[in-house]
From TrEMBL:
It comes from the Bacteria. It comes from Pseudodesulfovibrio karagichevae. Keywords: Signal. Residues 1-24 form the signal peptide. The keyword Signal applies. InterPro entries: TPR-like_helical_dom_sf (IPR011990), TPR_rpt (IPR019734). The keyword Zinc-finger does not apply. This is Tol-pal system YbgF family protein. The lineage of its organism: Bacteria, Pseudomonadati, Thermodesulfobacteriota, Desulfovibrionia, Desulfovibrionales.
Length: 697
C-alpha cells in the first residue's frame, strides 16, 4: 500500500515538472542532458566518440564546448587543424575562431577572423551576430585605429596587405555601425573614392585656437642641434641650445626631454602644460610615451655607452676644436683596416658633430650618404628636423620596430615645430581647454593618438572602469598609461579571485622595465595572486623582492604576509612585519590598527611571552572598544592568561564584558563557560567590595 502511494506521489511530481515517467528518459539524449547541466568536459568526450566526429557539425560542437570550458586555445587547435568548410559551416568555424582569439586576448586576430566570417553571411545575419557579441563595436573601432597607426608607420612591401585588411574591417564597420567615425575612416583611408564629399570630410568644422608661432624655424634648428649633442651624451651643451628657445613652454618641454634622456625619469610637474591648455604636450608626459625607454636609453645615443674604448675615443675627439675633430674622424675613415661597422659609426659621429656645431654643409653631405638605420634615435630625429626629410626614410626596416618608434618620432617632431600628419592630427601645440577634449578627440581628430590618450586619461581619472582600462591597455600598450591600465585590470581580477585572468594581465607586463612605483604594484598583485592560489613559497619569494625595492609595502599585503609567517611558525619575522605595520598606523583605519595589535599579541603568545601578549591584548581592549570583534577577542585571550595565573576576579571581569557585548552566540557561550569554570575553581562566592588581600598570619 505504502509503495503504491509513493509511486502515485512520484507520478504527480513528474507530471507537474513536465516529465512523464514513461518517457522521461526518452525526451533528452545523454548529450542534451549533459548540455543542460553544463557538464562540458563530458559532453566533449561524447562528441569525440561519435562515428561522424569529423563532420562540420561535430567539429563545431567540440570547438564550442571548449569555449564553454574557457579553453580558447583548445578551440583554436580544433578550428585551425580543420580544413575550411563551405557556406554557413565556414562562417561558424571562422566566428568561433574569432571568439577564441578574443578569449586569448588577441583582439586584432579576433577582428580579422570575424571579418573573414562575414564573407559567408548575409547582411542581416552579419548585423545580428555582430550586435549580439558583447562590446564588439568598441573593439572594432579600437582595432581599426591601432591597425591604422601601424599602417602609417609601415613603409615595407606589406603596406598594401595592411591597407586591404583596413578596408575590409572598415566596410564591415560601416555596414554594422554606420556613424561619423566610419564615414571619416572611409575617406581617410580612401580619399580619392569620395570626390564630392572631400571638402566636408577633410577639414575640421572649426580649427582650435593655437599660439603661433610656438616653434619658429630658428628654434627647430636649435632643437636639432640639441638632439645631435644629446646623441653624444653632451647634455650640458644640449641644454645650452634648448635654453635659447624663444617660448618658455617649449623650453620646458625640451628640458624635460633632455632630463629623460639623461636619467630615464619623466618630469614631476606638468602644470605648465595644463595652464597653457597644451593638451597634447601634457598627454605626452602624463601618459609617458617614452616609457619603453625608461630602463635603457642606449638606442638614443651614438656608439655603445658601456664600451670603455668607444667612450675614450669619443671623449678625445670631443676635446678637439671642430675642424680638428672632423679631420681626425676623416683620418680614421681613410684607414683600410677598419670594419664597415666601425666606418658607419665614424660617419655617424661626424654627422652628430657637424649638426651640433651648426656646420650645415658637412652635415648635409654626411646625412645624404648615411645609412639611416645605423643612426641612434636622437640623430634620426635631429636629421629629420634639420633637413625636413621624409619620416619613412628614418624608420627601421622591421615593421614592429617602426611601429614602436613612429609615435615617438611624430610627437617629438611636432613638439619641435614639424607636424607630420596635419590632415589627420591636430598640431602638437594645439591650445584648447580641457572641456573641449572630447570634441577634439572624438569629432575633429578621431585618429590623433595623443588627443585620444589625453581624453582617455581624463575619463579614467574621473571614473576608472574595467571597460576603459581594457581599451587603454590595448590601444596604448606602449605607454605608461597602458601599463597602469593593465595593472588596474590585474588588481581587479585578483580581488575578484579570477586568478587565471589576473595572471594573464600580469604576464603581459614587462616587469623588469617598470619604474619603481609600478614595479611595486606589479609585485604586490603577484604576491596576492600567489597567496590566493595557495603557492605560499612563491608568495614569500615575491614578497622579499617587494621589500628589496625600498618602496612602501601596501598595508593589507604586509598583514597577509605577517599572518603567513605566523602560520609557518616564523614568529620573529612575523612580528617585524606587524611592528612595521604598527609604526605606520596613522595611515590605517582603526579596525586595521586593532587587528594589528591582536596579531602582535598572538605572536607573543606563540613565542611563550604571555606578559608581552597581555600588554597588546589589554592595550587593544582599552584603545579600540568600538572595534567589537577584535576588542572582545583580545579580552577573552587576556582572561585566559589571568585565569592561568590564578587572577580569577580579573579574568571574570574581562569575560563578563565579553558575555554582555558579544554579537555572536558562540562567543557569549564560550565566555560564560569560562566564567562557570572559574567559579568552580574559586569555590564560594566572595564579596566583590571586600579586599582580596589575604593575611597569612
Amino acid at each position: 500500500m505504502k509503495s503504491r502511494i509513493a509511486f502515485s506521489l512520484l507520478t504527480v511530481f513528474l507530471a507537474l515538472t513536465g516529465l512523464n515517467p514513461a518517457f522521461a528518459a526518452e525526451k533528452q539524449s545523454f548529450q542534451e542532458w549533459l548540455e543542460h547541466y553544463r557538464a562540458w568536459d563530458r559532453l566533449e568526450k561524447q562528441y569525440a566518440q561519435e562515428s561522424a566526429a569529423d563532420t562540420p557539425e561535430a567539429v563545431l560542437k567540440r570547438a564550442q564546448v571548449y569555449l564553454n570550458l574557457n579553453s580558447p586555445a583548445k578551440t583554436l587547435e580544433i578550428i585551425e587543424m580543420t580544413p575550411a568548410f563551405t557556406g554557413k559551416d565556414e562562417a561558424d568555424r571562422l566566428w568561433l575562431g574569432g571568439q577564441a582569439h578574443r578569449g586569448l586576448g588577441d583582439l586584432t586576430k579576433a577582428v580579422l577572423w570575424y571579418t573573414q566570417a562575414t564573407k559567408f553571411m548575409a547582411d542581416d545575419e552579419i548585423r545580428a551576430r555582430f550586435k549580439g557579441e558583447p562590446a564588439l563595436e568598441t573593439i572594432w573601432h579600437d582595432v581599426w585605429v591601432k591597425m591604422y597607426w601601424s599602417y602609417l608607420a609601415n613603409h615595407t612591401l606589406s603596406r598594401d596587405s595592411q591597407k586591404e585588411a583596413l578596408d575590409m574591417i572598415m566596410v564591415v564597420g560601416r555596414k554594422v555601425w554606420s556613424n561619423d567615425f566610419w564615414n571619416k575612416a572611409n575617406f581617410i583611408i580612401n580619399p580619392d573614392m569620395l570626390p564630392s564629399a572631400s571638402t566636408a570630410a577633410k577639414a575640421p568644422a572649426e580649427a582650435p585656437a593655437t599660439t603661433a608661432p610656438m616653434v619658429p624655424p630658428a628654434d627647430t634648428q636649435l632643437i636639432a642641434q640639441a638632439l645631435a649633442a644629446a646623441s653624444l651624451e653632451k647634455f650640458d651643451e644640449a641644454a645650452g641650445y634648448v635654453a635659447k628657445l624663444s617660448n618658455e613652454t617649449v623650453r620646458t618641454f625640451w628640458t624635460a626631454v633632455l632630463y629623460f634622456l639623461d636619467s630615464g625619469n619623466t618630469p614631476e610637474k606638468l602644470d605648465v602644460f595644463l595652464e597653457g591648455n597644451y593638451l597634447k604636450a601634457h598627454a605626452f608626459w602624463a601618459g609617458n610615451v617614452l616609457a619603453p625607454y625608461s630602463k635603457s636609453r642606449s638606442d638614443w645615443f651614438l656608439g655603445n655607452p658601456d664600451s670603455a674604448a668607444w667612450t675614450k675615443f669619443r671623449n678625445n675627439i670631443l676635446t678637439m676644436a671642430p675642424a680638428d675633430a672632423e679631420k681626425a674622424i676623416d683620418n680614421e675613415l681613410g684607414s683600410m683596416l677598419i670594419s664597415e661597422q666601425t666606418a658607419a659609426l665614424l660617419r655617424n659621429f661626424k654627422l652628430a658633430l657637424s649638426l651640433a656645431n651648426g656646420n650645415t654643409q658637412v652635415a648635409t653631405t654626411t646625412w645624404n650618404s648615411t645609412d639611416k638605420n645605423t643612426l641612434p634615435i636622437c640623430l634620426r630625429l635631429a636629421g629629420l628636423l634639420a633637413f625636413k626629410d621624409n619620416l619613412n626614410k628614418i624608420l627601421p626596416d622591421k615593421p614592429a620596430e617602426a611601429f614602436a618608434l613612429y609615435p615617438v618620432l611624430t610627437a617629438l617632431s611636432g613638439a619641435a615645430g614639424e607636424d607630420i600628419l596635419p590632415e589627420t592630427e591636430a598640431p602638437f601645440w594645439t591650445a584648447a581647454p580641457a572641456n573641449q577634449l572630447q570634441a577634439l578627440s572624438a569629432e575633429q581628430y578621431p585618429l590623433d593618438r595623443l588627443l585620444l590618450l589625453a581624453y582617455w586619461q581624463q575619463r579614467f581619472a574621473a571614473e576608472p572602469s574595467v571597460g576603459l582600462a581594457k581599451r587603454a591597455a590595448y590601444l596604448f600598450d606602449d605607454s605608461s598609461f597602458g601599463i597602469r591600465s593593465l595593472i588596474y585590470l590585474a588588481d581587479d581580477a585578483v580581488k575578484a579571485k579570477d586568478l587565471q585572468l589576473g595572471a594573464l594581465y600580469l604576464n603581459r607586463i614587462d616587469e623588469p622595465a617598470l619604474p619603481p612605483e609600478l614595479r611595486m604594484a606589479w609585485l604586490d598583485i603577484k604576491t596576492r595572486l600567489e597567496l590566493d592560489a595557495g603557492h605560499q613559497g612563491q608568495a614569500l619569494e615575491t614578497y622579499q623582492e617587494m621589500a628589496k625595492t625600498g618602496e612602501p609595502v601596501p598595508v593589507m599585503t604586509r598583514l597577509r604576509m605577517a599572518l603567513l609567517y605566523q602560520q609557518r611558525r616564523e614568529y620573529e619575522t612575523a612580528q617585524k612585519e606587524l611592528l612595521a605595520l604598527w609604526d605606520a598606523r596613522a595611515t590605517m583605519p582603526t579596525a586595521l590598527q586593532a587587528e594589528t595589535l591582536f596579531w602582535l599579541g598572538e605572536g607573543e603568545q606563540a613565542m611563550r611571552n604571555p606578559d608581552k601578549a597581555l600588554d597588546y591584548y589589554l592595550k587593544l581592549a582599552w584603545q579600540y572598544p568600538e572595534e567589537n570583534i577584535w576588542c572582545l577577542t583580545a579580552m577573552y585571550r587576556a582572561s585566559l592568561i589571568y585565569e592561568k595565573r590564578g587572577k580569577y576576579e580579573t579574568a571574570k571581569r574581562l569575560l563578563g564584558t565579553v558575555v554582555r557585548n558579544a554579537s555572536r552566540k558562540e562567543q557569549r557561550v564560550a565566555a560564560q563557560a569560562r566564567i562557570d569554570a572559574i567559579d568552580k575553581k574559586m569555590g564560594a562566592e566572595k564579596d566583590e567590595d571586600k579586599s582580596t588581600l589575604v593575611y597569612p598570619f
